[in-house]
């Protein structure tokens, strides 16, 4: 067995042992197909006030500009689909934010994987990324054969749907590369039809500036009044396009204890959220991604849903 194949196999085996759903590998090179798409999306102002999306355009498309000497992009998926749901009479939190902030959980696993690679293979340099750097996670995961980009612009796989996080290790090691899978959305338009704010403006194109997740997390100003009554009770993030996707029939509960929600989070009712204090907010979301919106942001979102 050649060393490239051997290294690829042991990396994938270790990724599985660390709890990742799957692991795919691509050659670190310029993302030719993504470049015009990203440029058009930005020009049409689909990113709203997310000005950071305009930064590092070259680095977003070329990992060798991000990590010097890089040869391979190792893409990894980690399941977050919960086994329990919120109280039905509640304002809703996106499933990915139920437990501990995924950035911490995944970073630790990525560091372990990089350490393993260095121990087993030798001097390998690389960097770990969890959606906090200019890396087009979904494009790399699709290129690495982990799924296809759905019409809602999330990565989809036939086996487990789309409720998972995507992360990368970009390393200066040559490996065996995977090939993309085919698109299995067919004629289905469930996600487009169900989007409460009509943010999926055409198949495979989401106007980020109309997305409920954008309004409830990214937007720092007041939520535009024309969206009143269209939020379907979502106060942090939104899962509608994923919830209606037929491929998510195959979602299975995660086995990561750190993603389990604070018990109180599931039982809270609308009136509990309307009366929430900053102390309760801090207790519920101590290590959660919900902290991103801050107490004042969550209050703004709840007030917007109330009237």
TrEMBL record:
Its EC number is 1.17.99.6. Gene3D superfamilies: 3.30.70.20. [4Fe-4S] cluster 1 binds at residues 185, 188, 191, 245. The keyword 4Fe-4S applies. Binds 2 [4Fe-4S] clusters per monomer. Its cofactor is [4Fe-4S] cluster; cob(II)alamin. TRNA binds at residue 220. Pathway: tRNA modification; tRNA-queuosine biosynthesis. [4Fe-4S] cluster 2 binds at residues 195, 211, 238, 241. The active site is at residue 131. Cob(II)alamin binds at residues 60, 131, 155, 166, 213, 238-239. GO terms for cellular component: cytoplasm. It catalyses: epoxyqueuosine(34) in tRNA + AH2 = queuosine(34) in tRNA + A + H2O. One of its GO terms (molecular function) is cobalamin binding. Pfam families: Fer4_16 (PF13484), QueG_DUF1730 (PF08331). GO terms for biological process: tRNA queuosine(34) biosynthetic process. It comes from the Bacteria. Residues 173-205 form the 4Fe-4S ferredoxin-type domain. Keywords: 4Fe-4S, Cobalamin, Cobalt, Cytoplasm, Iron, Iron-sulfur, Metal-binding, Oxidoreductase, Queuosine biosynthesis, tRNA processing. The keyword Iron applies. Belongs to the QueG family. Catalyzes the conversion of epoxyqueuosine (oQ) to queuosine (Q), which is a hypermodified base found in the wobble positions of tRNA(Asp), tRNA(Asn), tRNA(His) and tRNA(Tyr). Monomer. This is Epoxyqueuosine reductase. The lineage of its organism: Bacteria, Pseudomonadati, Bacteroidota, Flavobacteriia, Flavobacteriales. The gene is queG.
């Amino acid at each position: 067995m050649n060393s490239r194949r051997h290294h690829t196999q042991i990396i994938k085996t270790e990724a599985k042992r660390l709890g990742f759903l799957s692991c795919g590998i691509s050659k670190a090179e310029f993302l030719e197909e993504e470049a015009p798409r990203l440029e058009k999306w930005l020009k049409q102002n689909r990113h709203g006030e997310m000005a950071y999306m305009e930064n590092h355009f070259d680095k977003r498309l070329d990992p060798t500009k991000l990590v010097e000497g890089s040869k391979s992009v190792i893409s990894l998926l980690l399941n977050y689909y919960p086994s329990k749901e919120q109280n039905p009479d509640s304002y809703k939190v996106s499933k990915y934010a139920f437990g501990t902030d995924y950035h911490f959980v995944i970073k630790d696993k990525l560091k372990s994987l990089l350490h393993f690679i260095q121990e087993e293979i030798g001097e390998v340099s690389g960097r770990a990324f969890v959606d906090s750097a200019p890396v087009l996670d979904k494009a790399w995961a699709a290129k690495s054969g982990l799924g296809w980009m759905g019409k809602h612009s999330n990565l989809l796989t036939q086996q487990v749907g789309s409720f998972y996080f995507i992360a990368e290790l970009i390393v200066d090691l040559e490996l065996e590369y995977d090939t993309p899978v085919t698109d299995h959305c067919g004629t289905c338009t469930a996600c487009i039809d169900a989007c409460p704010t009509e943010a999926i403006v055409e198949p495979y194109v989401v106007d980020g500036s109309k997305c409920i997740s954008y309004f409830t997390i990214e937007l720092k100003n007041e939520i535009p009044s024309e969206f009143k009554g269209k939020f379907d009770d979502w106060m942090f993030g939104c899962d509608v396009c994923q919830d209606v996707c037929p491929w998510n029939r195959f979602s299975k509960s995660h086995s990561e204890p750190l993603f389990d929600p604070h018990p109180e989070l599931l039982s809270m009712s609308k009136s509990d959220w309307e009366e929430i204090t900053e102390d309760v907010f801090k207790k519920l979301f101590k290590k959660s991604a919900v902290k991103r919106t801050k107490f004042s942001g969550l209050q703004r979102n709840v007030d917007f849903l109330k009237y």
